[in-house]
Amino acid sequence: MYEMKQYLAEKREYQKEYLEVNIQGKKQMLPLNAVHYFVSDVRKIGAVYLNDEKEVWFYGKLDNLEEQLKQYNFIRCHQSYLINGNKVEDVKGDEIITSGGSFQISRKYTISVREKWEEVKKRLYNNANITSIGMRVNNDVADDDDNILLEESKTLMMTTAHKFGAVKYGTIVGLHGFNQNISYRLYENDEAIIGRDGSKVHIVINDAKISRKHCGIKFSECEQCYYVKDYSTNGTYISNIGELQKNQWTRVDRDSLIKLINERYTFVLV
């Protein structure tokens, strides 16, 4: 399928995003997607990772680095901090909230942070491939080809950009994990199920800690919100709500973050 080939090509390009730095006279390539944030200390810059890797320090100015990474999703929130926008979960008040902690936004960068965050969100969501989970066909006007398409393609790869505001369908966007930068389009009355068992779910996560059927998500066009149900053993968490009760539908606002177990597997409900 052309869309799948296009996605794989884009994914390969995405993985080639490195920053070349000089450390003790030797060139080193830092994978940008692995960096949580850059921090400056006098004439040196440190690349800090989310995992247990050691910080990598090199000579440079954060102003120059910010300009160098302008085309990528990095957000300057302070004179000393440049945050990887791919790790940001939300911007609230004077804080940037990431999967690895929060950062204060200095007054100088208040406006630019919000502008950059909106830009990053649009870039992430609009450039992601979209898989439609369920398809609605108007029976009054549908022809045989439509019915064949409905029967043969429960999931359809598309690249249509998602538009903000009132929408006729929901969009589930992968932020971290196997599903990063992949979007799933969800129509009303359809349930998107996330889990480990590929024969029973729509969004597959191949991890033993993920339940075979982990959670279900529905979209309400009328209410412009989502409903999420936890089926799992290890839990499903929603930002501003916390851990969901088992086997009970919970109303969830758009733009909420959903975590499965921990920050390794996160999605945003756009």
Structure description:
The protein is α+β, with helices and mostly antiparallel strands. The chain folds into two domains: 19-121, Beta Barrel (OB fold (Dihydrolipoamide Acetyltransferase, E2P)), CATH 2.40.50.1020; 129-269, Tumour Suppressor Smad4. The protein contains four helices and 23 strands. It has helices at residues 2-15, 62-68, 110-126, 144-152; strands at residues 18-23, 26-31, 35-41, 44-49, 56-59, 74-78, 81-84, 88-92, 95-98, 101-104, 129-133, 155-158, 169-176, 182-187, 191-195, 203-204, 215-220, 225-230, 236-238, 242-243, 250-253, 256-260, 265-269. It has an eight-stranded mixed sheet. The radius of gyration is 20 Å and the shape is elongated. The two termini are 26 Å apart.
| Helix-strand string | HEEEEEHEEEEEHEHEEEEEEEEEEEE
Mean pLDDT across all residues, rounded? 79
Indicate the low-confidence ranges by residue numbers. 1-16, 135-164
Strand content: 35-45%
- Count of the separate structural domains: 2
| CA-based gyration radius | 20 Å
Please give the CATH architecture of the largest domain.
Sandwich
CATH class identity of the largest domain: Mainly Beta
Quickly give the structural class.
alpha+beta
Q: Write down the overall geometry.
A: elongated
Helix content: 10-25%
Spatial order of the strands forming the largest sheet:
12-11-14-13-23-22-19-20
Could you describe the largest sheet, including whether it forms a barrel?
8 strands, mixed
Count of alpha/pi helices? 4
The tally of strands reads 23
CATH topology (level 3) name of the largest domain: Tumour Suppressor Smad4
Distance between the termini: 26 Å
